[in-house]
Amino acid sequence: MQWNGILANTLTYPFLLKACSCLQMVEMIHTQIEKNGFLGDIFVPNALIDNYSRFGGLGIKAALRLFTVMEHRDVVSWNSMIGGLTKVGELREARKLFDEMPEKSIITWNTVLNGYVKAGEMEEAFQLFESMPQRNIVSWSTLVMGYSKAGDMDMARVLFDEMPVKTSVPWTIIISGYVEKGFTKEAIELYDRMERNGFKLDDGTVISILAACAESGSLAVGLKVHDSIERLKFRCSVAVCNTLVNMYAKCGSLDKAWSVFNGMSKRDVVSWNVMLQGFAMHGHGREALCVFERMKKEGFKPDRVTFIGVLCACSHAGFIDEGIQCFYAMEKDYGIVPEIEHYGCMIDLLGRGERLKEAFMLVNTMPFVPNAVIWGTLLGACRLHGATELAEKVLDHFKLDRMDPGNYSMLANIFAAAGDWDGVATVRLQMKSVGVQKPSGASSIEIDNEVHEFTVFDRSHPNFDSIYGMVHRLAQDLKRVAHPKDATLPVEVGELVI
DNA sequence: TTAGGGTTAG
Known about the structure:
It is a single chain. The protein contains 27 helices and 6 strands. By secondary structure, it is mainly alpha-helical. Among the domains are: 1-103; 459-497, no CATH class. The strands form 3 sheets. The chain has a two-stranded antiparallel ribbon. It has a two-stranded antiparallel sheet with strand order 3-4. A two-stranded antiparallel sheet has the order 5-6. A hairpin with a 2-residue loop joins strand 3 and strand 4. The radius of gyration is 27 Å and the shape is globular. The termini are far apart. This is Pentatricopeptide repeat-containing protein.
């Protein structure tokens, strides 16, 4: 087979398959392989199974068909098939094959263990782990990972401490776990211990921990990692710098993000995107657009993510017309076809700018079936501007997932904003009758290495009174600045009306 | 063929 002038053979097929970006390409090469009689060499069908498995349910079906007709299978064929099934969530099927498999390798066990862990089935995972004839560092790490993701840091820690041998991977897993769950102190302690034990920093460790910091807003750990990067003169790759910029931006330290960004000797499109997004999410629309301009001037090609940042910046800063212009420019000047996410930004932009009718029209004319997020954005805008009539119209189109708890509460919020308490009651009743429970959203802030979490109706914080008193005063001040005439109206702080 | 990895609207 000729592929870009190269004659494919047993050795090149796996590489060709790896380069496939869609199922059709794999199928095409599969046909060629069969025609040229290369299926007999075990490497080739194994690579086919592996690469079919990358493309969801349809890919798995094709892989299974091939697996079933294979005359010879080796351990890798079985492992790839089982791994593919676990990746698409077909755990039961994977387990069936696992049980049928004549001679399992440790990788087979680890693959199924990973399947249970990814599905959050920790009881099954633990049972399997216990019954393993032998375990290696991957088995232990997988289980630590599972408990860590499930939020059971105690169990994760017990296993971590019991691990006979450690590499930087399990250290990274447990530290990231502590960071994500807000256990800053434990994270820092372990990070110090990891350094003392002589583990050198690597890209994976730094990126994982910083990503966890960005996710949970843990600036303290982020600073710690940045400090050791500088102290140890760790040579930062572009990816590491990007994560660092992102961490500072997400933790609200825009000046630090900006200084790391400006100190980078090499940047890629992601560097620009994280910086732009950082400014945008904190309401610095003008700065975000400046980054966008500079990015173009320095010859970087904006991508789909860039435009999400740009539109978001325009939306949060109230640059409605600039946003509309950018939206049209993205396809015309950059050849990027807007995706549903970009339409979402536009609906948010128009909605926030009180151009609700245009937002509504865009929902109805865009080339996508509106999803719950799109309707939610529009309903949110109706709520923001108290547009009950349009909200009703939206509700006529309310063909979204009835089980999505967020949408019910959004609906209830619109009614509440409009003072329609019967409406609120009806939605609440509906929620009860279909058995929807809304998981409460939480916000958190880190002060002196301690993360404080707040959820609606939760008055358990020891400083509840003074904290909410201050929030109330701030809200009053903001209101006074924004709407001097309404300064005496009651202020809504979350679910509390004070 | 098995464990950790940056950006994506509300």
